[in-house]
Amino acid sequence: MSIRPTLEARKAIPTLEGAGVKLHRAFGFQDPSELDPFLLFDDFRNDRPQDFERGFPWHPHRGIETITYVLDGTVEHADSLGNTGTLQAGSVQWMTAGSGILHQEMPHGNANGQMHGFQLWGNLPSALKMTAPRYQDIDGTQIPEVIDDDGTRVKVIVGAFWGKTGPVDGIAADPQYLDIFVPAGVRKTFRIDTYRRAFAYVFDGAGAFADASAPSGVLLEKEVGGEELNIRDLSGNRTLIRFGTGDEVTVQAGPDGVRFLLISGAPIAEPVAWHGPIVMNTQAELEQAMRDLQNGTFIQPTH
Which of 60, 178, 220, 253 is deepest in the core (most CB within 10 A)? Predict the structure, then answer.
């Protein structure tokens, strides 16, 4: 067993998207090989409706999958194929845009006007870029949760973990998407297959992730003359952690515990031609997508 080194820890950056939605972007529109097969990750968390209620009006997608996980509030969605629905708190939508879709997403706050959720973009390999669009809307009650003896809680959204399998299936990058809470002071190790590219996104509390250069995880030390333990190198709210190769990730939870998403997938390792919400393999394919948008042939007929 080998602990994955921490390659980088960086804060998500405030960003304006859609029709004026304030969010924080952990990564996106940079080097697509950095976290291949994942392209973009946004944290949309707001306490003021005016910061998100204008939402994400009609826009296209082709060549990717979008994964929306709602923690609080709701998201109404509709698309050019006639699909409509509402994502409730705790639910997940995995949308395979494939050959092309136009859709909109309109967030709404809870009773206190608060909204919180995440959106992840996953790339599609060339063989599936023009596949038929597909939705998987998963209610929160369908997502299995495993609780360990030390109080660690893991919601298994995608993939298999600790004897449970998430309800989302048939995804090209063979991903694993976990929502993890580790209680205060607990040190925990999670297994990730070596072939996967992996990252964590800390969104509540704080924790120190062990580095392969110090597998014992020198994360705690006693104060001089005291019994209290200090947590070193904390990664706190809205922080992205990129991991190197290995088959384990170890975290030491801080004094309030730590909650984070642990996401991994098999790299696609193909060329990327990217323009906004459209991701293809070549510039020619990207230009064709632009022409399809202009001449009304972006949406393929369904059979």
Answer: 253
